[in-house]
TrEMBL record:
InterPro entries: 6-hairpin_glycosidase_sf, 6hp_glycosidase-like_sf, Ssp411, Ssp411-like_TRX, Thioredoxin-like_sf. GO terms for biological process: carbohydrate metabolic process. This is Spermatogenesis-associated protein 20-like TRX domain-containing protein. Gene3D superfamilies: 1.50.10.10, Glutaredoxin. Pfam families: Thioredox_DsbH.
Length: 678
């Protein structure tokens, strides 16, 4: 009997009709394995995973394979996005055993959850042989299997240990991290390393903040070049906006087509920050279109943002997105079709599969002549209409707390930059205004949904779907990303309740997740006990739980003036500092927060009756140093500590600038404020 029909995870629901007798993760499955005295097969994946779909079709939908699994194992299906704690433990085991990891992840374990054999994708024939071999080994070589499991548990326990060396995250370490990234930078194609190439959003955010602090032209150049290379590449959807998960090549041409919420949230934040710092038209366009993608494609009205769009459409990668020259002519006519093929590098040979090409920009359009820009916008609109008639990729509709937190923070920052640069003279001012209205509504839906649905009895839950929250508890990254989002909402709206909610989550994190020596575990002290308690300090596809909670602690301390939260942030960051010094590519968010702490961060309060249009507010946003918090509104509003006892001076709007809880004199002119922030 397959037990996944009532799951909230779309990934689990995809397997609800398999002939495999799947169990969801839980004590009942392990009790059944113990009762039957059989090993456990743990299969971990996620809804948008291409090779998960392949293995499902080849093996888990096959009656023969289902019979083998059901006879000799208890099979457990896990959505890694819903249970990142389970995924983290068994991924560490997989990497320890094989030297690599990925999804689908295939783990064989004892009835107490101890892994003894791990792998990833297996073709059907190999998987059948593996099932038979593991079943035989369990029956005939039990002691050897148990010894292997004990060795794996010892290895993953050491890999997840806390309490290692600590050091202050100094300017020298951050400068060294920037130098490391410079040394690994692909000067031809942008980004770091070779194929496959992932958008390095957190490293780029760090480099922008490093440039702000030091004036380093190298850090800015790496960020700008990579931003443009990604924006022109096939990894960026040239029609609807948004970015795919990664490029299969080194030059951003052919993507792996899944689109993840977390990538697009972090990239929106990066492009918005690049726009704020430079006024760059390309950064403006990409930030706008990425925000629009979040609102149009991932927003669930009355809820939050969905997790992902699938890599496949009807089992075929790229079916929605790839074009031939003939298809362009069919959609646009002969003349515009040829022009579009040249602009988007769509060739007869193709850049993808079966003579098709992924659209990429061959030339700059943002600074082209007005006639060229107008024609390009017209072509994009008509192609998008044509593409919308094609089959579309499925969407993973679950709402993940941490990823929604990332999206809320990014949109809040985007909206402040959009207000800063708003101009009715812009040729696409109406489009920008429409996008800001739509994404503002989507952001508010998401943050209200997190507050009302995901916080249960003061604790955070990981995921929800159709406005129903799941049972899995929030992990550290959820607390950090959501608390940071609440801090961002407090700054954007001036409403005290968001700051209060952030403080509640941070207090839970300090009480339940803290580890000896200043670090943090990824799971709470009263969470389900796994074979190891994960505590990964490195930033990968998303910020680590530790980096996320530090970012929230820093923002909250700056907004409230409560130093104990800053002290906790500094202690936690000190546990990551030795890694920043050695592995900068895997500590991008930690280094980003480190730049904020090194800067102060600045606390900027603007006492004004016009929190949106006051020139002092615009100057504060435009010139804010790395990680600064900015709050504007009427003095002495309840729940807004930065505006307490900060009156208007002589009846005029007044800015108050503090750094590390030490304040400068209040100023009433833009020039004076800019001088204090310089």
């Amino acid at each position: 009997m397959n037990r996944l029909a009532d799951a909230t995870s779309p990934y689990l629901l995809q397997h609800a009709d398999n002939p495999v007798d799947w169990w969801p993760w839980g004590a009942e499955a392990f009790a059944e394995a113990k009762r039957r005295d059989v090993p456990v097969l743990i299969s971990v994946g996620y809804a948008a995973c291409h090779w998960c779909h392949v293995m499902a079709h080849e093996s888990f939908e096959n009656e023969q394979v289902g019979a083998l699994v059901n006879d000799d194992f208890v099979a457990i299906k896990v959505d890694r996005e819903e249970r990142p704690d389970v995924d983290a433990v068994y991924m560490t085991a997989t990497q320890a055993m094989t030297g690599q990891g990925g999804w689908p992840m295939t783990v064989f374990a004892t009835p107490d959850g101890t892994p003894f054999f791990c792998g990833t994708y297996f073709p059907k024939a190999n998987f059948v042989r593996l099932l038979e071999s593991v079943a035989t080994a369990w029956r005939d070589q039990r002691e050897a299997v148990l010894r292997q499991g004990a060795a794996v548990v010892e290895a993953i326990g050491g890999a997840q240990a806390v309490g290692g060396p600590t050091a202050p995250l100094t300017a020298e370490l951050l400068d060294s991290a920037a130098d490391q990234l410079s040394g690994e930078y692909d000067a031809t194609n942008g980004g770091f390393g070779g194929a496959p190439k992932f958008p390095p959003h957190m490293n780029l955010l760090f480099l922008l903040r490093h440039h702000e602090r030091t004036g380093s032209p190298r850090s800015l150049e790496i960020a700008r070049h990579t931003a443009e290379a990604m924006a022109r590449g096939g990894i960026h959807d040239q029609l609807a906006g948004g970015f795919a998960r990664y490029s299969v090549d080194a030059h951003w041409t052919v993507p792996h087509f899944e689109k993840m919420l977390y990538d697009n949230a972090l990239l929106l934040r990066f492009y918005a920050e690049l726009w704020r710092l430079t006024g760059d038209r390309m950064a403006r366009r990409v930030a706008r279109d990425t925000a629009r993608f979040l609102a149009d494609e991932l927003h669930r009205p009355g809820e939050g943002f969905a997790s992902a769009l699938d890599a496949d459409t009807e089992g075929v990668e790229g079916l929605t997105y790839a074009w031939t020259p003939a298809q362009l002519v069919e959609a646009l006519g002969e003349e515009d079709g040829r022009w579009a093929a040249d602009l988007f590098e769509v060739t007869e040979a193709g850049t993808f599969e079966h003579g098709t090409s992924v659209l990429r920009l061959a030339r700059d359009v943002d600074d082209a002549d007005p006639e060229i820009r107008a024609r390009w916008r017209d072509v994009v609109g008509r192609l998008l209409v044509a593409r919308d008639t094609r089959p579309q990729p499925a969407r993973d509709d679950k709402v993940v707390a941490a990823w929604n937190g990332l999206a809320i923070t990014a949109i809040a920052e985007f909206l402040r930059v959009a207000a800063l640069y708003a101009s009715p003279e812009d040729e696409d001012a109406n489009l920008m205004e429409g996008v800001t209205i739509v994404v503002d509504g989507a952001m508010r839906d998401a943050v209200e949904h997190l507050a009302a649905v995901h916080i249960v009895d003061g604790r955070l839950r990981r995921a929800s779907r159709d406005k129903v929250v799941g049972e899995p508890a929030g992990v550290l990254e959820d607390y950090g990303c959501v608390a940071e989002a609440f801090c961002a909402m407090h700054q954007l709206t001036g409403e005290g309740r968001w700051l209060e909610l952030a403080g509640g989550l941070l207090d839970v994190a300090l009480a339940r997740f803290a580890a000896p020596g200043g670090g943090f575990y990824d799971t709470a002290d009263d969470a389900e006990q796994l074979v190891a308690r994960p505590a990964d300090p490195t930033d990968n596809a998303t910020p680590s739980g530790r980096s996320a909670i530090v970012a929230a602690l820093v923002a909250y301390a700056a907004l409230t003036g409560e130093s104990r939260y800053r002290e906790a942030a500094e202690a936690a960051l000190a546990t990551v500092a030795p890694i920043v010094g050695r592995h900068a590519r895997f500590t991008g968010y930690a280094a980003t927060v480190g730049e904020a702490l090194l800067s102060g961060p600045y606390e900027i309060a603007v006492a004004t009756d016009d929190a949106v249009g006051d020139p002092l507010v615009a100057a504060a946003v435009r010139h804010a140093p790395p990680g600064a918090v900015v709050v504007a509104g009427r003095p002495d509003q309840p729940g807004v500590p930065l505006l307490a006892d900060r009156p208007l001076v002589d009846g005029r709007p007044t800015a108050y600038v503090c750094r590390g809880f030490v304040c400068q004199r209040p100023v009433t002119s833009v020039d004076e404020l800019v001088a204090q922030l310089g």
